C-alpha cells in the first residue's frame, strides 16, 4: 500500500473525433480539485471551449489570484465570464470560423480545501456529481444531467449568450462525517445514474485489495471503458486522506 494522502484521478473515454470533453486535476499544498468540461454538441468546435475553460480554471486554482473564497458566487461568476472571453478570443484566432458561430461548454469543479476539510462544488450547465459516504458507501446525487439541447442548457460558457451564472454549493466538511467520503464527477456522457458499480471498485481499494495508486487509476479507467457509451465521457474521483485513514483503522 502506498502512503495515505489526498488523491485525485481523471479518466476519459472519447467517442467523437475530436473529443469534446476535457478533464483536469489540481493537487496543491492547500487544495485538491477536479474539473470536467463538456463541449456542447451542435456548437462549432466546442472542443476548443472545453479545453480553454478547464485549463483556464485549473491555472486560476493553482495561482489562487482570482479564487480565494469558494463561497463567493460573484467572484466565481467573474472567473467564468473571463473564461468565456478567453473562449471567444481563441475562437477568433481559428481559421474557417463562420460569422456569428461560437463554441460552448459546460464546466463543473469540485474543490477540497486540504487544511480545513471543506468541500465545495460549482457548475455551469449540467453533468453528474455524487457524494459517497465513507462508512456507508451510500451515494447522494448533487447534480444529474438534464435532457436539454444546446439552446436550452442554461448558464453555460457561450460567447453569444448572457454571462454564465454558476451554481455554488458548500458540500460540507469531510472530517465531520463518520468514515469521511469521496466525490465522483462526470460529464453527461458518463452513465452515473447509479454509481454503485464504480463505488464497489473504489472500496475494493480502500479494503486494501489494490497494491498501488496506479492499480486504482486503472480500475477507474477500466470501469469507464466497460460502459456502453455513445458520447464522450470524462470521469473524476476525489478521495480525501481522512477517508483512507478511517478505512485503515477499520481493516
Fold-level CATH name: Phosphatase 2c, domain 1
Terminal CA distance: 13 Å
Give the overall silhouette.
Answer: globular
Helices, by number, come to 5
Radius of gyration: 18 Å
Architecture per CATH nomenclature, i.e. the level-2 architecture? 4-Layer Sandwich
The domain count comes to: 1
Fraction of residues in helix = 25-40%
Order of helices and strands: EEEHHEEEEEEHHEH
Beta-strand residue percentage:
25-35%
The CATH H-level superfamily is: PPM-type phosphatase domain
Name of the level-1 CATH class: Alpha Beta
Structural class: alpha+beta
**Main β-sheet, spatial strand arrangement:** 1-10-9-6-7
Enumerate the spans where pLDDT stays under 50 for 5 or more consecutive residues.
none
Mean pLDDT: 87
Q: What kind of sheet is the major sheet?
A: 5 strands, antiparallel
Describe, in plain words, how this protein is organized in 3D:
The protein has 251 residues and is α+β, with helices and mostly antiparallel strands. The protein has one domain (7-250): PPM-type phosphatase domain (Phosphatase 2c, domain 1, 4-Layer Sandwich). It has 5 helices and 10 strands. It has a 5-stranded antiparallel sheet. The longest helix is centred in the N-terminal third of the chain and has 21 residues, at 73-93. The model has no long low-confidence stretch (mean pLDDT 87).
Amino acid at each position: 500500500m502506498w502512503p495515505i494522502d489526498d488523491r485525485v484521478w481523471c479518466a476519459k473515454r472519447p467517442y467523437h473525433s475530436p473529443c469534446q470533453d476535457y478533464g483536469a486535476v489540481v493537487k496543491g499544498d492547500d487544495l485538491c480539485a477536479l474539473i470536467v468540461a463538456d463541449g456542447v454538441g451542435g456548437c462549432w468546435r466546442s472542443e476548443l471551449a472545453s479545453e480553454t475553460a478547464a485549463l483556464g480554471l485549473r491555472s486560476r486554482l493553482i495561482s489562487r489570484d482570482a479564487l480565494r473564497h469558494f463561497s463567493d458566487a460573484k467572484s466565481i461568476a467573474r472567473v467564468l465570464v473571463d473564461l468565456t472571453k478567453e473562449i471567444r478570443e481563441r475562437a477568433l484566432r481559428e481559421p474557417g470560423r463562420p460569422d456569428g458561430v461560437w463554441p460552448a461548454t459546460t464546466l463543473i469543479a469540485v474543490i477540497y480545501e486540504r487544511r480545513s476539510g471543506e468541500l465545495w462544488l460549482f457548475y455551469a450547465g449540467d453533468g453528474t456529481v455524487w457524494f459517497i459516504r465513507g462508512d456507508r458507501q451510500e451515494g447522494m446525487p448533487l447534480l444529474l444531467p438534464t435532457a436539454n439541447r444546446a439552446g436550452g442548457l442554461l448558464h453555460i460558457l457561450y460567447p453569444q449568450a448572457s454571462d454564465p451564472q454558476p451554481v455554488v454549493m458548500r458540500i460540507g466538511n469531510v472530517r465531520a462525517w463518520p468514515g469521511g467520503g469521496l466525490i465522483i464527477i462526470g460529464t453527461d456522457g458518463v452513465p452515473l445514474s447509479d454509481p454503485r458499480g464504480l463505488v464497489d471498485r473504489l472500496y475494493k481499494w480502500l479494503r486494501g485489495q489494490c497494491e498501488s495508486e496506479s492499480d486504482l487509476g486503472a480500475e477507474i479507467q477500466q470501469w469507464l471503458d466497460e460502459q456502453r457509451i455513445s458520447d464522450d465521457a470524462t470521469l473524476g474521483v476525489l478521495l480525501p486522506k481522512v477517508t483512507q485513514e478511517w478505512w485503515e483503522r477499520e481493516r
